[in-house]
Amino acid sequence: xxxxxxxxxxxxxxxxxxxxxxxxxxxxxxxxxxxxxxxxxxxxxxxxxxxxxxxxxxxxxxxxxxxxxxxxxxxxxxxxxxxxxxxxxxxxxxxxxxxxxxxxxxxxxxxxxxxxxxxxxxxxxxxxxxxxxxxxxxxxxxxxxxxxxxxxxxxxxxxxxxxxxxxxxxxxxxxxxxxxxxxxxxxxxxxxxxxxxxxxxxxxxxxxxxxxxxxxxxxxxxxxxxxxxxxxxxxxxxxxxxxxxxxxxxxxxxxxxxxxxxxxxxxxxxxxxxxxxxxxxxxxxxxxxxxxxxxxxxxxxxxxxxxxxxxxxxxxxxxxxxxxxxxxxxxxxxxxxxxxxxxxxxxxxxxxxxxxxxxxxxxxxxxxxx
Length: 370
Ligand SMILES: Cc1cc2nc3c(=O)[nH]c(=O)nc-3n(C[C@H](O)[C@H](O)[C@H](O)COP(=O)(O)OP(=O)(O)OC[C@H]3O[C@@H](n4cnc5c(N)ncnc54)[C@H](O)[C@@H]3O)c2cc1C
Known about the structure:
This protein is α/β, with parallel strands linked by helices. The protein folds into 2 domains: 2-70 and 103-161 and 252-368, FAD/NAD(P)-binding domain; 164-250, D-Amino Acid Oxidase, subunit A, domain 2 (D-Amino Acid Oxidase, Chain A, domain 2). The protein is 39% helix and 29% strand. It is built from 13 helices and 18 strands. The protein has helices spanning 10-21, 34-38, 48-56, 60-63, 93-96, 107-119, 150-154, 211-218, 222-232, 281-297, 308-335, 339-354, 356-368, and strands at residues 2-6, 25-30, 43-46, 68-70, 72-77, 82-87, 102-106, 124-128, 140-143, 159-176, 182-188, 191-197, 202-210, 238-242, 247-256, 260-261, 264-266, 272-273. Strands 5, 6, 10, 11, 12, 13, 14, 15 and 18 form a 9-stranded mixed β-sheet that branches. Strands 8-2-1-9-17-16 form a 6-stranded mixed β-sheet. It is globular. The mean pLDDT is 93. Bound molecules: flavin-adenine dinucleotide (FAD). Residues 6-12, 29-32, 37, 42-44, 130, 132, 144-146, 150, 170, 206, 249, 268-269, 276, 279, 281-282, 285 line the site of flavin-adenine dinucleotide (FAD).
């Protein structure tokens, strides 16, 4: 099968490897140089679903030593003053042996490893261009061209779009009092706030705030920004230094009503985009890749590829829908400071703390997907 992939971000690049593995010839279109692709300042939470995909492609063993595992995920509700902890023991038995609830990965390391892998695969031909390929030359075209997908615009593929009235701020900080193997998800009335371990005392903070508050924070000096962070961090954890300039970016929710248009198949952020709370973004994108490669590998579809886009679209719908709704609910939960919601919040926390079965269900859904 001849496949074109438009976009060589983390989704398109992994799709190229995975589809080449499934026996396809792949032309990988990208408008940016490898250096530009690598030099993005982002940090991802890696779940067990991504671990399994990387493992099956032989990339995991190269990456593992560069990832930071965490054994504790602390979810703290500031308004209720309650905390629930997810542990390795809450994972299913197959994931427990990896001794981590999840891993934290820096973009540069992930992208470099994946590009290195691509360079060793003969079946992948990289084409440096921004021209959208013609369907006559390919059996299928994979649109991995990100949230501003030109392909989606060209075909006017309908989607649900929501601009959160929030901005995300990320920065690397040195913290005192936090363990290097624990991550935090803090539910604060301004918006969720995540603290992810990067090794030793170094942590990535991902803080969502109202546009008004973030605009104010943008004008703060580094030391005043540190003071602000110290007011949100859990009791006993203090910020020492900010390592880099904080980065600000808007947050959107996007959900395509269909994940294909004719021969064009949408994967990754061209199909969906979620709030960074919960660290689901990249993992959801990579599950698209796994689903598409699994379908392409079925012998029946080798000569009947016209069915693939539709089958892919219906196969991905439920996982993407559910995780998008769960992620969005977490944002709304965090910001719901109306009294009536406190009863619901208290109940949710009580159930999560008391029932290990529910805790396991929630963690396993978030880490494995559907
Ligand atoms: C500022 C920012 C910060 C983020 N931080 C986090 C985070 O902390 N944690 C997290 O999990 N997720 C984060 N995300 C989301 C995460 O980056 C994405 O989930 C992930 O990169 C996968 O996206 P993708 O490969 O689908 O799209 P992208 O990474 O956007 O890749 C799309 C690629 O397509 C290329 N392209 C576009 N149009 C064309 C064309 N016509 N021809 C050729 N090439 C084309 C682009 O150059 C780009 O390389 C962040 C996103 C942004 C924008």
